[in-house]
Structures are given as C-alpha cells and as structure tokens.
Amino acid sequence: MSNSSWANEGYLVALDIDESDEELMDLIKRLSFSFGIGVISLNSQNVDESVILARAKFKEGLDYSVMNELSVKNADFKKFLESVEEFNIEKEYRSKSEFDEILNAERLEIYLKEKKIKG
Asked: Do 112 and 47 meet the contact criterion of CB atoms below 8 Å apart?
C-alpha cells in the first residue's frame, strides 16, 4: 500500500476478502488511514456486489519525490507518467489501445471464468 501512496484516490482490489476477520479488517483500515489507499473486496461470484472496505483519500497535491523514485526503478511506471503528462485525447498519436477495454456483462463473465476468478 505504501508504494501507492503517491496516487490520488488509489484503490487496492483483492478477491473475496473475509470481512468477518476482525484482525484483517483492522489492519486494512489502519493501512488505508496511514497511506490513503482505499481497499475494494472484489466479489468473484457477483462483481456488482463488490464492496469498498476502506475509502481512498483525495489528495490536493502529488508526492513528486515518491513518483520520481518509482519512475527511476520501474521503466513501465516512467512511461505511464510520461503518458499522463502529455495526455490529450485529441492528439492523433493517442490511441484507445492504450487503455483497458470496458467489458459488458457477458464479456466480463467470460473473462472472469477464463482467468479462473469465477467458477
């Protein structure tokens, strides 16, 4: 979670978190409070029933020192930052292929089964 503390309203998504585990829920809430990262329990059987366990914090400013450190260590993250910096959907060199496809309900079901997220 701390590596994502630079993000604005960032979320960690995990499959089927046991909300009855009080120790785990306390840890999630403490880490979320400390780092500002939200946590979503993704319901693998019914995605629409997924639950936000901890809300992410909205940040007015960005942590440029952490972003710089991560970009030095990770070339993909550096490319991501460069892409965000120059983002303008109107420019011809921008492409929808840069983004994840939004799946309808039927295609989502197929994807979840293929990835063995849902039985």
From this structure: yes
